[in-house]
Amino acid sequence: MTTRCTWCGDDPLYVHYHDTDWGRPERDPRALWEKLVLDGFQAGLSWITILRKREHFRAAFQGFDPTEIAQWGEADVTRLLADPGIVRHRGKIEATIRNARAYLEIEAAEGFAPFLWSFVGGTPQQNRFTSMSQVPTQSDASVAMSKALKKRGFTFCGPTITYAFMQAVGMLNDHMITCPSHDACAEMAW
């Protein structure tokens, strides 16, 4: 019997995200950065809250263009703090600007995607969980990624955030083995 992972419930937006996005290996550096930023905004909130605001986040943050965001200053922070379509948290907004600058440095030095994917040896890890209770909230790889990102200037990227990010971008296949998406994501691994 195949059953979808239970964490997405029956909300159509959440189900669509689960079925078409979560756990699919992502290699585009800008898309990886966007997901890492959104996972940082999610800290202390539910993912569905961020998912419902994702399109507005994309508009408010100019398509998550790190080159543009790296140039922002206090006027942009003030503008975003007044925007009800996003999570209005000064620390997370300021972190996004700092993280854009750090992203650009990593991208120029070695490539952001290769840097991040190095924490799983460049290949998606195929987990075989049968119960949500088996899924950890962090791992040695997420701790290492978090430390490396912080060393390079990132904030709002603790090991729990980086673990959720690794799941979302397909570095870890944490779909339950009974979920049809588990095999679909496994087939995308290279």
Give a quick rundown of the structure.
It is built from ten helices and two strands; from the N terminus they run αααααααβααβα. It is mostly helical. The radius of gyration is 16 Å and the shape is globular.
Output the keywords.
190 residues, mainly alpha, Endonuclease III, domain 1, two-stranded parallel sheet, 10 helices, 2 strands
What does this molecule look like?
With 190 residues, the chain is mainly α. The chain has one domain: Endonuclease III, domain 1 (Orthogonal Bundle), CATH 1.10.340.30. Helix content is 56%, strand content 2%. The chain has 10 helices and 2 strands, in the order H-H-H-H-H-H-H-E-H-H-E-H. The chain has a two-stranded parallel sheet.
Topology:
Blueprint: H1 12-20, H2 29-42, H3 47-60, H4 66-69, H5 74-81, H6 90-109, H7 112-117, E1 125-126, H8 140-151, H9 159-168, E2 172-173, H10 180-188
Parallel strand pairs: 1-2
H/E series, N to C?
Answer: HHHHHHHEHHEH
Cα distance spanning the termini: 27 Å
What is the correct CATH architecture?
Answer: Orthogonal Bundle
- The CATH class is identified as Mainly Alpha
**Largest sheet strand order:** 1-2
Coarse structural class: mainly alpha
Number of domains: 1
What is the 3D form? globular
The number of distinct helices, counting runs of at least 4 residues, comes to 10
* Biggest pleated-sheet summary: 2 strands, parallel
Give the number of DSSP strands. Answer: 2
Specify the CATH homologous superfamily.
Hypothetical protein, domain 2
Helical residue percent band = 55-70%
Instruction: Name the poorly predicted regions.
Output: none
Strand fraction equals under 5%
Mean pLDDT: 96
- At CATH level 3, the topology is Endonuclease III, domain 1
Task: Output the radius of gyration.
Answer: 16 Å
